[in-house]
Amino acid sequence: MIPGISSRKRFADLSEQEVLALAISSEEDDARIYRQYAEALREDYPDSAKIFDAMDAEEDEHRRRLIDLHKTRFGDVIPLIRREHVSGFYARRPVWLMENLGLEKMREQAEAMEREAENFYRMAAARTADADTRKLLGDLAAAEAGHSETAGALEQELLPEDARSRENREAHRRFVLTWVQPGLAGLMDGSVSTLAPIFATAFATHDTWTTFLVGLAASIGAGISMGFTEAASDDGQLSGRGSPFKRGLSSGVMTTVGGLGHALPYLITDFWTATVIAFVVVFIELWSIAWIQNRFMETPFLRATFQVVLGGALVFAAGALIGSG
After folding, report:
1. Conformation bin of residue 94: beta by default, left when phi > 0, alpha when psi is -120 to 50
2. Helix or strand or coil: residue 93?
3. Per-residue b/e over 176-204, b at no fewer than 16 CB within 10 Å?
4. Strands annotated E in 220-287
5. Is the C or the N end of the chain the one with fewer CB within 10 Å?
C-alpha cells in the first residue's frame, strides 16, 4: 500500500455482488452484537435480554434471505468484504467494549445501528438494476426503518412497565456502587485528608512552590493508594459492586482531583492570593461532596453539609495550627 493512500474501496465502486456480500457480513455482525448484548444482560436484566434475542433472530433472518438471493444470482461463493473494507462506511462499536455500556447505552446503540442499516439498504437499492435484488434491499430498508416500532412492540410484549422499572433501578444501583460510591469516597479523602499537609506547609513556609509540590505529592500518592485499596478490597462478585478496575479507577482519579483542587492555586506566586483562591476551591469541593451525597446516596443535604464541613474544618484547623506553630 502506498503511504497516505487508502486501500479501502469506495461504496460507489462496489459491484452488485460485493454490495450483497457486504450486506450479508453486516447482518452477521449486527446479529452477533445483539447476541453479545443479550448474554451480557441475561443474568441481571433477563427481560431486556429477551428483546435483544428477538432482534438477533430477526437479523439472522435478514442474513438468510440475502444469502438465498446471492446463491440465485451469483452462486455459492460469497466474496469476503466487510465494513472496514469500504471507505466511509458506518462502523460498529467493537463487541469487546460492550461491557463498558450500560443498559440504556445498549438500547441507544441498537437504535443507532438500525438507522444506519436503513440508510445502507436505501443506498444499496438505488445502485442495483436487478428487480429482485432491488426489491429485497428495499424491503430490508423498510424493515430496518420499522425496527423502532418493532423494538417498541417487543418492549411492550417482553418488557412490561414493572420489569422495566425494576431493571432501571438495578442499573442505577450498579452505577452508584461501581462509580459514584468509590468516586465519592475518593473525592472526600482527597479533598479532606490533603488539607492538613497542604495548609500546614503553606503557613509554615509561606512558599507557594513548596506548598504546591507537597500538595501534588500528597494528591498523587493518595490517589494511587486509594485506587489500589478499592480495587483490591472487593472483586465485586458477591457484593455486586461491579468491576474492581472501574471502582479503583473512579476512586483513584477522584482522590487525586480532590487533592489537586486546592494545591493548584499555589502555582500563583503571591502567597495570600493563592491561599484565598485555595479557600474558595475547598468550599466548592466540600459543597460538591455534600451535593453528590444528597443526589446519589440520598443523604439529607443539611446532614451531608454538616458532616463534610465539620470534618473539613477540623482537618484544616489542624493543618493551620501545625503550620503556624
Report:
1. beta
2. coil
3. bbbbbbbbbbbbbbbbbbbbbbbbbbbbb
4. none
5. N
What CATH class does 9-159 carry?
mainly alpha
Residue type, 194: T
Domain ranges of the chain: 9-159, 165-324
Q: Which three cell numbers stand for residue 299?
A: 443523604
